[in-house]
Structures are given as structure tokens and as C-alpha cells.
Design brief:
With about 280 residues, the protein is of the alpha/beta class. It is about 40% helix and about 20% strand. An 8-stranded mixed β-sheet has the order 2-1-3-4-8-7-10-9, sandwiched between helices. A two-stranded antiparallel sheet has the order 5-6. Helix 5 packs across helix 6 (about 160-170). The radius of gyration is 19 Å and the shape is globular. The N and C termini lie far apart (about 55 Å). It binds thiamine diphosphate and iron/sulfur cluster. The site of thiamine diphosphate (TPP) has 18 residues, from helix 4 and strand 5.
Amino acid sequence: MAEITRLIHEYLRHDKKFPHVWCPGCGIGIMLGSLIRAIDKTGYKKDDIVLVSGIGCTGRLPVYVDFNTLHTTHGRALTFATGIKLAKPRLKVIVIMGDGDAVAIGGNHFIHAARRNIDLTAIIVNNNVYGMTGGQYSPTTPYGMKSTTTIYSNVEHAFNISELAVTAGSVFVGRGTVYHAKLLDSLMEKAFAKVGFSVVEIISHCHTQFGRLNRMGTAVEMMQWQRDHAVTVEKAAQMKKEELKDKFKIGVLIDRELPVYQDEYEKVRRWAKGSEKR
Ligand SMILES: Cc1ncc(C[n+]2csc(CCOP(=O)(O)OP(=O)(O)O)c2C)c(N)n1
Ligand code: SF4
């Protein structure tokens, strides 16, 4: 069986849930491909994986994959995931969110999950808007760009999701784009292998909302924009500040060791029970 057919049969609910809801050309499909290839490489059994999402075009993803899945409320995916991880620590819990889900309504949960360093992987598709509900601006809509709720110009400044994750305490943060699919595969593999709060931010395109309003062209042209504005972390280290002005970094932004929430909690539990001295 061809590799792609094997992956589809193994990991997608191909005979039950398709066709999917995404617009033709949306970057979320590319992200789904990377996700199943990376999971396949990690060697986890399907029953050991839980995929949790909130709501949105990105949040729709768990419907299509054949793991344990949970399609929860907008902005609360990390709270459901936290509960699952604490109740069943042996499970690999992966959370899929849009930028609205992760850093608007769910922003508080995001920074605190990172601060706690709970063992979860957060995959965030950053397409700069609320895609599913019609292209309203989100905390990652760039200054000066249009959305359906900033029809003249957005006057707010955007969050940098990856930098926020680093500052809040994540042990692994990687950023890729849907144009750089191979890099995405490897970032996801690394994030899944990490113990602690790991984040992969994926720069994607919503050509039917954000792209249309800002005259950024087709899905392909928006991916060409990603290609032309992304710079690897290694290359960025050799560039001057002025050269990096309209660029963003891709690759591994941080990979460090910090105490993991479940281990710390278990320590306190043993002290409290008197089975271990402080
Ligand atoms: C509590 C709550 N507020 C608002 C909504 C409406 N809503 C559904 S999806 C969405 C935005 C999704 O945007 P994002 O998370 O960026 O994902 P995308 O659709 O762009 O992938 C909103 C506001 C909701 N479902 N629940
Ligand atoms: S509305 Fe945007 S994010 Fe949603 S499926 Fe269409 S292109 Fe993708």
C-alpha cells in the first residue's frame, strides 16, 4: 500500500466523517498531514493519544482523526486537556487550537498551562483571524491590516504567540509555516517527544477571509508570502536587525528542561501522605 494511503487508512475517519468543512486550499489540511506523519513516527499507539480542540476551523480537526478525541468549547481546550492529563498521566495529550482559541478567549489558560509546565503539546494554527465565524480580528491580526471587525485598519498590536509561550515558561517552542511542511513534521515530532508544555505555532493562511480583505491573493500566493517572509533561526542569527524587520523566525525557538507539573505534584502528594520525607 502506498505510504499516503496507509496513513489515511490508519489515522483518518475517512469512511465516516469526510468530506471535511475546510475551504479548498486552506492550510489546515497541510497541518493535518504533518500531524499524522509526526504521530506515525513517534510510535504511539492510537489508543494512547488524546486530541483535544476548542471551536473554529482549526478546532474541527479532531473530528477527522481516529484517536481518542474531544471537541470542546471555544477557548477551553487546554482546561479539558489538563483534566485528562491529571486523571490519566500515561496518555499523550495534544491540543489543537486556532489563534482565537489559544490567545483570545483561551489566552489566560494558555499562559498558565505554560507557566505550570504541564505535560501537554499545544498545536496552534495562526491564520491571523477568526476564520470560522467570518474573519473577525484576533489578537494576532497585524497592526494596520483589515478584518471584518476592523474594516478600515486594525489599530491594536499583535501578540507574538511563540514569544509569549517562551516567556510564560514552555519547555519547547517551535514555529513553522504550512509552506514549510517538512519542517512542520520535524517540529511536531520534537514537541511530541518533549516532556512538559510544548508549543508548535503554525503560520497559516485564511485566504477566504483575511487574504481576501487584505488583497493577498490566492492560497498559493499567501503560501509564497510565507516562503518569502520566514527566516530560519540559524539564518536569522547571521542577519542584521534591519534585515529582519519584516521577517519572522521559523525553527526551534526554545528547547529547555524545567520541572514538570505532574512530577512536582506527585512529590507533594508523597510528602503529604508521609511516604517520603521533604
Ligand atoms: C464561548 C464562545 N464564544 C464565541 C464562539 C463563536 N466562535 C466560534 S469559532 C470562533 C473563532 C475561531 O477562530 P480561531 O480560534 O482563530 O480559529 P479558526 O476558525 O481561525 O481556525 C468564535 C468566536 C463560540 N463558539 N463560543
Ligand atoms: S474560513 Fe479560512 S481558516 Fe476556515 S477553512 Fe476557510 S480558509 Fe481555512
